[in-house]
Every structure is written in C-alpha cells, then in structure tokens.
UniProtKB/TrEMBL annotation:
It comes from the Bacteria. This is ABM domain-containing protein. InterPro entries: Dimeric_a/b-barrel.
Amino acid sequence: MAFMQIIEYETTREQELEPLFDEWEQATQGKRTLSREFHAHDRDNPNHYVDVVEFPSYEAAMKNNSLPETQSFAERLRELCTTEPRFINLDVVSQH
C-alpha cells in the first residue's frame, strides 16, 4: 500500500530552500526510497510551504527518513523555519 507524507512549514528564508533540496537529492542518489515529491508554495501565505512526498510503503518511508542525509536535511530545514514543521503521515486507501 502506498504511503504519503505531508510536511507543512513556514520560512522567510525561501531562497535557501532550493539549494538545500538539491543538496539532499544529490546526497541520496541511489539510496532514497520516495516515488514522487511535490514542493508547493501557498499562494495566500507567502511564508507557508507544503511538501507532499509519496513512497511505495510505510516501510520505505521509514527507511528514507532514517538515512543520515535525510536526518541532516531535516535539521537544516528546521533551522530555516519560523515555526516547527508539521508532519502528517497518510496511508493511501484509494487512488483515482
């Protein structure tokens, strides 16, 4: 069963986000387990961002989250945030 993680956060340092994502992508080449990722910006709140990450399973998500590169990325993301990131873990029950 597919698994999705939604990460909501706010930052005023958006210019530092893209290089951070690029660095993580390069560092996890061949190791990361995600299927797809969407990085979105809230049109109505310029400091609000939402990332939607899809994994083939919950186990794959946990494997990805335990990568040292992912742990480092998460710490650095927190440093850029004005509020603590919110993580929502979802089991996909159907797709249309």
